[in-house]
Amino acid sequence: LLREQDARLRQWLRCLQSLGLDPFTLDRESYDMPPWHQIRTAVGEADGLLILGFRQLHVRKGVWRPGTVESSDAAGWWGTPWNQIEAGLALMARMPVLVAHEAGVTEGIFCRDAWGGGLFGVRLEAADAIDRSRDDISDEVVTAWARAVREAYALDT
User: Do residues 16 and 50 touch, judged by C-beta distance below 8 A?
Assistant: First the structure.
């Protein structure tokens, strides 16, 4: 991660702790290869998932679904495909998922149209509002997700 992205990660971890949650991270350096068992185990032991959609790939020129009626410009920022995999696993496990994306990252789970049904979404900067205890829509979304996580934990115990 870039230094700024790493700072955002740490800020989100503090935010989760301030909401009474106990965050666990699976650092890239700790991945087993292949990672599937490790990821399934981590997701299976969690009550909620936060996915940070950092800018990972910049496309200068591209076309999404060329030659179809859904063809569109693919230029811009993209997150890592791992974000989509992790979200899919958690959603299949009926786990509340919060996605927080950097500006410009809007594909897949980071698309506002996909939010709902256990998938909560905010901009990456939403942690700023939580840190300052400022009331805004991001604060409400994060608080609702944290409530869903606590409810999932209560069902597990």
Answer: yes
The residues, any chain, with a CB within 8 Å of residue 153's CB and separated by 6 or more, are 47
Question: What tokens does 77 get?
Answer: 């920022």
The 10s digit of each residue's pLDDT in 49-102 is 999 999 999 999 999 999 999 999 999 999 999 999 999 999 999 999 999 999
Kindly write down the DSSP assignment for every residue of 95-111, as one continuous string: --EEEEE-TTB-SGGGS
Separation between Cα atoms, residue 146 and residue 139, nearest integer Å: 10
Contact 124, 53 (CB under 8 A): yes
* CB contact set of 125 (below 8 Å; sequence gap of 6+): 138
Task: Give dist(CA 15, CA 126) in Å, integer.
Answer: 10
